[in-house]
Amino acid sequence: MNNLKIKPHLQGTLSKLCGVLSVINCTRLVIHPAILKPYLYNRCIKALVRYKGSCDFIGRGTEPEDLEYLLKNIICKEYPIRYSKPFYKKSNIFLDEYWRTIKTFLDEPNTAVIILFETSYFGHFTVVYKADIQRLFLFDSEHNKYLLRKKCTTRRLSINRTRLIT
């Protein structure tokens, strides 16, 4: 997983499709990029239009349930990908447990994690491919390289904790 010769697909300036790109970029990291079927991006967009009944999400952004829909109905059906939501039923998870769970998972070969981080201004889906005690390393559609643990929280934003991660 340390071999990052491929580059992430990047998010356009007009679209809010970091969620769709995170699903595709995560899939690219877990399986060999050459195995991806052609037009996967277009198929994901079309599937979301059918699922949501409109294309408004292109300008507004995707929701966690949109990513879940894509993972369950396209990605996991076509590729050898395992999908799970370890924090789904847990509220008020502590940052230490969140970080430890992600790091332990990423220590396994051919793994990646999609997370949502929010600031007081925006939310952004991204892919984590590696974690150490200080940083989450990103394979990101907006050129973000990492998230610093000291800036993250799982509870609420503050002056020092400017990234709410879920």
Helices, strands, pairings?
Layout: H1 18-30, H2 40-52, H3 57-60, H4 64-78, H5 95-106, E1 113-118, E2 123-131, E3 135-139, E4 146-148, E5 152-153, E6 163-165
Parallel strand pairs: 5-6
Antiparallel strand pairs: 1-2, 1-6, 2-3, 3-4
Describe what you observe in this structure.
The chain has 166 residues and is of the alpha+beta class. It has five helices and six strands, in the order αααααββββββ. The protein has helices at 18-30, 40-52, 57-60, 64-78, 95-106; strands spanning 113-118, 123-131, 135-139, 146-148, 152-153, 163-165. Strands 4-3-2-1-6-5 form a six-stranded mixed beta sheet. Helix 1 runs parallel beside helix 4 (64-78). The protein is globular, with a radius of gyration of 15 Å. It starts with 17 loop residues before the first helix and ends with a strand.
Provide a count of the helices: 5
Order of helices and strands: HHHHHEEEEEE
Q: Distance between the terminal alpha carbons, to the nearest Å?
A: 23 Å
Report the C-alpha radius of gyration, rounded: 15 Å
How much strand? 15-25%
Largest sheet: 6 strands, mixed
Helix content: 25-40%
Number of strands: 6
The global form is: globular
Whole-number mean pLDDT: 90
Uncertain residue segments: none
Give the strand line-up of the largest sheet: 4-3-2-1-6-5
Secondary-structure content class: alpha+beta
